[in-house]
Write a structure and sequence with these properties.
The protein has a single domain, classed as AttH-like fold, CATH 2.40.370.10. The N terminus is likely disordered. By secondary structure, the protein is mostly beta strands. Strands 1, 2, 3, 4, 5, 6, 7, 8, 9, 10, 11, 12 and 13 form a 13-stranded antiparallel β-sheet that branches.
């Protein structure tokens, strides 16, 4: 769940494409043809258990025309209604609207609005807002976290556009501009997010799981990058802030921990470019596949992604002890990814490396997810004895981008955010 930034999760719907291509023993030879329709190849072999691993692993991405029809969606860019309520909170489901920002003074902020917890999809609606603020140079003891849950009668969600009201807290927007307000105790944020990069959706944005495709998990990066400004009040002072921001939206009707073992989610701003990267490890019952993704965007939209079925490959490096002494595990401090084109002459590539200092100086969130979910301490201890300690870690990092793509070459570095969600 991304009440810290399960921004996945998200989740990237091109995941299935990557797994499919990566599992192909003899991929098509372009033979000089730069107009190969890889989607048609996939559709023609949709029942092939080798080319299409979802046939034996009971999952698949929503990439086909019938999926758009099933979901009443168009194949064009995201529409405003797609960032509205997408589930019925009274049914087994989860949904959240996630916003984060890195301010010019180094302050970070995360605000999330939930219909209910992803770990309690069968439970009743539980409208919740969380705010996380890390002032510049703050130690983990100085991180600010506020959470408020209200009765369902004090919450509302539009089905036309993003307009979520939970108590006095709200987020509202139209893919271009969003207003985010939350006041919980003595913590208050009043922010405006203005998009500078068009909304992105990989195919339908859905993954279907289960023998009858009855379970779904979906992701919409509504604002891949934008300007964030306004005020934040904490520790008795009001701060006028400005910086860069991000917003995405996740929903579904199954617990992500039943599908995924873990995921890395990373985003960066490097010069005029925005990069979103994901590395997701699926449960064994879904094939145990590692599903990577790279999305490179600029102010006009997508520069390069996996829609032409390139194969991103990620490597985890500098595996060291976790910087939080409360978590006795190791974590990678360097993540490198490369995506190479299958289009002739196959010289294009995108390389992205996230380098994080190997100490606690870059740590901006570290928490046992069960604790954040307000489980009783006795249950958290019992879960740990059984080997279940889901943990969320978030760093400030630096990204190095190097690409050659369709005649454009670029190299540069810029600020990044890196999260690791360990669901086991």
């Amino acid at each position: 769940m991304k009440f810290l930034r399960y921004s996945c999760v998200g989740l990237i719907l091109v995941l299935g494409m990557i797994a499919l291509v990566a599992s192909t023993p003899n991929p098509p030879d372009p033979g000089g043809d730069e107009n190969i329709d890889y989607l048609q190849i996939i559709q023609d072999h949709a029942t092939d258990p080798v080319l299409c691993p979802w046939n034996w692993a009971h999952w698949r991405p929503g990439i086909f025309p019938q999926d758009y029809k099933r979901l009443n969606m168009s194949e064009g860019p995201p529409e405003v209604w797609e960032d509205a309520l997408r589930t019925d909170p009274d049914q087994p489901s989860f949904e959240w609207w996630y916003f984060d920002g890195i301010m010019s003074d180094g302050t970070t902020v995360v605000v999330v609005f939930y219909t209910k917890s992803m770990f309690a999809i069968d439970g009743p609606e539980k409208p919740t807002v969380t705010v996380s603020i890390v002032p510049p140079g703050a130690s983990p003891e100085e991180f600010i976290y506020a959470r408020e849950t209200v009765s369902p009668e004090y919450a509302s969600y539009s089905t036309i556009f993003c307009d979520v009201q939970i108590g006095e807290n709200y987020c509202t927007g139209d893919l271009a501009v969003y207003e985010i307000y939350a006041r919980i105790g003595d913590v208050e944020v009043d922010l405006t997010l203005q998009s500078t990069v068009p909304s992105y959706r990989s195919f339908t944005g859905y993954v279907f799981t289960g023998p009858n495709e009855e379970f779904t998990f979906a992701w919409l990066p509504a604002v891949p990058n934008g300007t964030l400004s306004g005020t934040m009040t904490y520790n008795g002072s009001t701060h006028h802030v400005q910086g860069s921001g991000y917003h995405d939206h996740n929903w579904g009707n199954t617990d992500a921990s039943s599908i995924f073992k873990s995921w890395w989610w990373m985003r960066a701003s490097v010069g005029p470019y925005t990069i979103i990267s994901i590395v997701m490890k699926m449960k064994n019952k879904y094939g145990g596949l590692t599903l990577p993704g790279i999305i490179l965007l600029d102010e006009n939209g997508v520069v390069a992604d996996m829609s032409s079925y390139q194969i991103p490959i990620f490597t985890q490096m500098d595996l060291q002890a976790h910087p939080d002494p409360n978590h006795d595990d190791t974590i990678a401090y360097t993540i490198g990814g490369v995506m190479r084109s299958w289009q002739w002459p196959m010289n294009d590539y995108v390389k992205i490396t996230y380098n994080t200092p190997m100490d606690a100086s870059a740590l901006i969130e570290s928490a046992n997810i069960l604790g954040k979910e307000q489980w009783p301490e006795s249950q958290i201890a019992l879960a740990k004895e059984w080997g279940y300690e889901p943990w969320y870690t978030r760093f400030l990092s630096t990204a190095t981008l190097d690409f050659v793509w369709k005649g454009v070459s670029y190299q540069g570095t810029g600020p990044a955010t890196v999260e690791f969600m360990d669901l086991e």
